[in-house]
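hey so i finally got around to running the thing on that chain from the lab meeting. sorry it took forever, my laptop kept dying and i had to restart like 3 times. anyway pasting the input first so we r on the same page abt which one it is
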Amino acid sequence: MVFSKKPIHFIIAILVAFLPLFGKSASIDTMQVKKEVVVEKKEVKDEAAEQQEKIDEVIGHHVLDGHSFTLFADGETGAHYGFSLPIILWDNGLQVFSSSKFNNGESVAESNGNYYFLHHEKIYKTDAAGKLSTEKVEGEEHVTNAQPLDFSITKGVLTLIVVAFLMFFLFVSLAKSYAKNGGISSGVGRFFEPIVLYVRDEIAIPNIGEKHYKKYMSYLLTIFFFVWFLNIFGLTPLGINVTGNISITFGLAIITYLITTFTAKKDYWKHIFWMPGVPVPMKIILAPIELLGTIIKPFSLMIRLYANIFAGHIVLMSLVALMFIFHNWVGSSMSFLLSFAISTIEILVALLQAYIFTMLSALYFGAASEEHHHDEAH
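ok and heres what got predicted. didnt touch it at all, straight out
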């Protein structure tokens, strides 16, 4: 029986003719899948970028001072739980009202016909609609609205007041216990007495000398416990970052500089402006350098305390944020353990920074009060 090859040739020709259509269909399906993958990746990237933006905002608000004291916030509803603080402004007269009028930066506050808006913890004068004018400077937008003089009781100021009263009552009770018990401390004073003695015997006397240390002891004890307590408050979940604020460390450094300057003896200034034992041309060259050094010393105090505390807050908050970025229990658990370890280290850093600030202040006081006896022939 003989089969004709024509039908087979015809079928093959048909398949060859329609083959490009099948290829095109497959190509279309592949392109569709690729488009879906690209869209999905874009959505994931957008979601990650949005999450990163929220994390940056939370960290930024944590290290900034605040005009209200927020204990905690509900992430789903956006509600904030805490208490308001007084807003005190000078804008064509005294303007006093509660920070609750800002509604955590979402509403415009009105006072005596003036309107104010809270933007990134800065108060700007605006209209009833809360419109802010901005301009780009080096690629960043800056608000151009006028700013009234702000004397508000912020979160940082409130913490300063609380720490000041806490120190006052602690050490008044310690002094009373000495008087009552014949020079023996009692109660909580038994914990602070060894620290007071350590500041005196290991910081003040070795660096200033037994002859002059007493007149600096009150400041050294105050600055030690003040910085230490503020650092400890900064480790609580209340979002307090006082010593991580450069204006606070600037104020503390200025006090050290003023005490050093106004208690310095003539030998101190003689070594700055006309250094003994140095050729005259070198004296002229070294005088402005030494004078600049008196300014650099408190500047280093300011930067050292600010940078260490600020960086510690940023690192700790970043590690906590990793718990929300990882979507598995392994990454979140590791982030928690790392955050706990860093928090423990930060407790030591809080004490260490108070010690360093006090130690360097004592060194500057010692240099200012030191009496030099130079041989005239030297």
